[in-house]
Structure prediction request, 330 residues.
Amino acid sequence: MPITVALDRSPDDPRPFIERARPTHPSLIDTEHVLAELYHIVNVPTLIWIDAQGRICRPHDAQFGTDTFTAFHGKASGPYLDLLRAWVREGKGALAPDEVRRHQPKPTAESQQARAERALAWHLQQRGRVEAAERHWRRAGELAPKDWTIRRGSMPIRGQNPFGPEFFELAREGTPEYPMESVTPTRVAPRRQL
Amino acid sequence: MQRFTILDGGQRVELAAEIAGEQVALDPGSVHEELGWSLRPEGLCRGSVCVPVRDRAALVGERGIDLAELARVLDRPLALDVAERAAALGTPASERRAALEGLEAPDFTLPDLAGRRHTLSGFRGKKVLLIAYASW
Prediction:
């Protein structure tokens, strides 16, 4: 059962994609970044396998369902889709508990402080306190420079284009990478430099 | 006394506070009513949980309970904007790490486009592929 969760500021942002996809699975909206906080998610897409007993059995992977942007990010979709099919059909590909723990991204004092700053920034922004919000967006970004749910996720909110120059600048700092990067064999090319 | 907003997890609560410079002193009655904490001989307590308070004088002054010190005692990250009279209390890394290390997928309830709420633990018995994505 896929459960998709949009880390967007409003249901309106993912609405066109959801309506076009017409999913038969739960397609949820997370405007307060509840999921990002609970699971320590620092970028999208992030995929996590949860077994039928409700336990995480394959932690955070940054993988794609198509090859539309392979030329940019350098990962092929085929191998991960194969892994998924093997899991669903044959129960293969889950990691042993200690392997899961070793490969989970770990929250830190700074990353948690950043999430509190993000929550305050979002609260202030929604109340039109734009200058005050900006201080806290910046503070959050300084505390967690590799958390793109904060640094890129806030761009639409702050009037920046998450596919434009501010994003190119952010991307030059290097993409956040999960520990599973070295485990899941989908890389076919280096990430393109912008 | 002024109104002071605290974002506490998913809740937004309003407390009575006195502000002097960068110090925010929360009215103890407000702290008890809105956040559930009160100072007892055993320490700072909420329900059956008590957190020891080493420096009572730092926590409780004439004007009330110091917000920064409250956050420190509770080991919670604090994002503070005194001028905007607002703050967010976060969750300590130790708590998040412990939950993830336990491997039980943290439960959550979120709405779909129609506003229907779905809870992860409701899918027990099925394998779940959790996909976080965004329009950005």
